[in-house]
Design brief:
By secondary structure, the protein is α+β, with helices and mostly antiparallel strands. It is 34% helix and 27% strand. It has one domain. The longest helix has 26 residues.
Length: 247
């Protein structure tokens, strides 16, 4: 009897530890190629220190091509390649705020020329933006980290029905605006958000999907806010998500 209890406790510790430390991360693209290009072409000194307001709405390019990407690989033959990702309807609605809150920026997705799944490099993205007669190119990429905390003993005694899992997510959406003519940078910053949600053994998957969708939606919205406000650099989230948050 004691041996069975000991085995159960040890199994619980293993499950608990694996739940606490198992994180998954999205493959965010690097913008170092665009930054290096801007430096070589003499446009790398236009951005001020992180967090400073350096860009007014009147200085935004009037026509903007937009593309969402993720990294293919940072190593080997695929280093520097990115893969295009389809913009969601929520993201397209957020982009429309650039036209409402500024002097009428017209933001158009690049998906007509570069459908989702296309593998390209920086110069090819800029060339596609020039085909749309866009003054600048906005590239966005998601860095999403999912976490998983598991409370073992309620799971053992309630057959998975009680809240036993806390799904967490921290998301940073990086954005960079590059002039299609000279390659200079207009914006180089990010929007960040995080969230968490509790679930039981049967709802853990849907809870994970919901918290990721919520954090990514709000992080993208934060990025658009910072473009409108003209604030480059990282975004520091100061308010943790409350338990009952429904945003």
């Amino acid at each position: 009897m004691h041996a069975k209890l000991l085995c159960t406790a040890l199994l619980g510790c293993v499950v608990f530890l694996s739940g606490c430390w198992h994180d998954t991360r999205s493959v965010a693209a690097s913008f170092d190629g665009f930054r290096h290009m801007a430096t070589l072409r003499g446009g790398g000194d236009v951005l001020h220190a992180a967090g400073e307001v350096y860009l007014t709405p009147r200085e935004l390019p009037r026509t903007l091509a937009v593309v969402k990407v993720r990294a293919v690989s940072r190593y080997g033959d695929h280093a520097g390649l990115v893969e295009t990702v389809e913009l969601s309807e929520i993201e397209i609605r957020e982009l429309a705020r650039l036209g409402v809150r500024t002097v009428g920026v017209d933001a158009q997705p690049l998906s007509r020329l570069l459908p989702a799944g296309t593998r390209v490099q920086e110069e090819q993205l800029l060339a596609a933006a020039r085909q749309l007669d866009a003054e600048a190119l906005l590239v966005v990429t998601y860095d999403t980290v999912q976490g998983n905390d598991m409370w073992v003993f309620p799971l053992l005694f309630t057959v998975g029905l009680a809240p036993t899992v806390q799904k967490t997510c921290a998301c940073t959406v990086h954005g960079i605006i590059v002039l299609t003519g000279g390659g200079g940078l207009v914006f180089d910053g990010a929007g960040s958000d995080d969230g968490w949600q509790i679930a039981n053994g049967y709802t853990a998957q849907s809870a994970a999907e919901q918290v990721v969708a919520r954090a990514e939606r709000r992080a993208f919205s934060r990025l658009i806010d910072r473009i409108i406000a003209g604030q480059n650099g990282p975004d520091v989230r100061v308010r943790p998500e409350s338990l009952m948050s429904g945003d």
